[in-house]
Amino acid sequence: MASDKVEQSLKELENKRKNGEIGSTEFYKGLLDILELIRKELQAEQIDEKLAKRQTPLLLTFIKNQIKEFRNRGN
Amino acid sequence: MSILEREKEIKEFLKNIVKEHNLDGILLVDMEGLPLVSYVDESIDEDTVSASSAAIISATMIAASDTQKRGVNEIMIDTEDGYLVFTPINEEYILTVLTPPGAKLGIIRLITNKVEEFIESILGQKEGKK
Q: What is the pLDDT of residues B79-102, one digit of tens each?
């Protein structure tokens, strides 16, 4: 199940960060890997309009901030 | 749709309120974070503020739901440079009011109510036409 798979990946990553095995950047990149896992699962699902509407702003804010950050780094 | 049909009129209304009360700006945003109508200071990036307004509302709704609280009426962020007040309207739109330091919260609430009534009257007119 996707929920188990994503939860397990997240728990492992969170534990590594809590134990100090990885730094903030690695934790961040690990979260992006989990997002990729979620993206694949969501593409295969029929997503409810209401749910999509609720979650869109979080993604939009993340993406718009990334554009700004890329630009600030000259990328 | 009806909001965009009346964009000029709403923008004029927001502009008058911003100028009258010396605010930093007012934005009307949809629940997905897209800007609809706004009147803000030039230094403010309307696009990113719109997206973050909806994200704040969305995250707050999730937190409220997780703690068995129903409905979100208002979110107020108090910063050193003024307030950010987010108010959901009709579960479809978000009104974001940006104030300079020293603004009075009571006045901000009156402004929010006034804009909310204006927007609802426009939406009501549209429904009446159907």
A: 999 999 999 998 889 999 999 999
Contact B101, B82 (CB under 8 A): yes
Whether residue A61 and residue B52 make contact (CB cut-off 8 A), yes or no, is yes
List chain B residues with CB under 8 Å of A61: 33, 48, 51-52, 54-55
Per-residue pLDDT of chain B (130 residues; tens, 9 = 90+): 578 888 999 999 999 999 999 999 999 999 999 999 999 988 999 999 999 999 999 999 999 999 999 989 999 999 999 999 999 998 889 999 999 999 999 999 999 999 999 998 987 764 443 3
Residue B33 lies in a domain: yes
Check CB contact under 8 Å for B58 and A55: yes
- Residue B61 belongs to some domain of the structure: yes
Write the CA distances from B73 to B59, B61, B69, B70, integer angstroms: 14, 10, 11, 9
B51 neighbourhood in chain A, CB within 8 Å: 57, 60-61, 64
Lookup: tokens for B98: 């940006």
The domain that contains B29 carries what CATH number?
Answer: 3.30.450.30
On chain B, the residues whose CB falls within 8 A of the CB of A65 are: 48
Q: How many domains does chain B have?
A: 1
Residue B38: half-sphere exposure toward Cβ, Cα within 13 Å:
29
Mean pLDDT of the residues in chain A: 94
**Does residue B111 fall inside a structural domain?**
yes
